[in-house]
Amino acid sequence: MNPIDMFASAITFHPDGAVRAAERRMTGDGGGWQIAAFRVETDEDVHADHWEVHPAAEEAVCCLSGGLRVYFRPEEPGGEEEMVRLTAGAAVVVPRGRWHRLELDGPSDVMSVTLRHGTRLEKRTA
């Protein structure tokens, strides 16, 4: 029983009830729900230039310290992006299959919880 550095590893909850420390992954199949924490300082650190989608599950995006904005891509062509501002201690649930991206208000600690299976990234244009 050793402590897990949440800023260096993720914790994965497997369907068989096992809980394991694992490499943090943005995409792919880690075999279960992944909890990951990130210390971020710039928009580059949160891939603000990419949209992300999780088709297998919803995602909880939690702001532990600092502040950030979660943007949702319009569901209809020509629509407006929606934005949710998170301050320390706040979270938002990203609906399954909803494209989203993050931008920082400043250095922050962020935690995400989701199934990574099928996660896709797409370069943002304009």
Word description of this protein:
The protein is an all-beta fold and 126 residues long. The chain has a domain at 37-123: Jelly Rolls (Sandwich). Helix content is 0%, strand content 48%. It is built from no helices and 11 strands. It has strands spanning 10-13, 19-22, 33-40, 50-53, 59-65, 67-72, 82-87, 91-94, 100-104, 108-115, 120-123. The strands form 3 sheets. The protein has a 6-stranded antiparallel sheet with strand order 2-1-3-10-5-8, with no helix packed on it. A 3-stranded antiparallel sheet has the order 7-6-9, with no helix packed on it. A hairpin with a 5-residue loop joins strand 1 (10-13) and strand 2. The protein is globular and about 50 Å long. The termini are far apart. The mean pLDDT is 92.
Task: Please outline the helices and strands.
Layout: E1 10-13, E2 19-22, E3 33-40, E4 50-53, E5 59-65, E6 67-72, E7 82-87, E8 91-94, E9 100-104, E10 108-115, E11 120-123
Antiparallel strand pairs: 1-2, 1-3, 3-10, 4-11, 5-8, 5-10, 6-7, 6-9
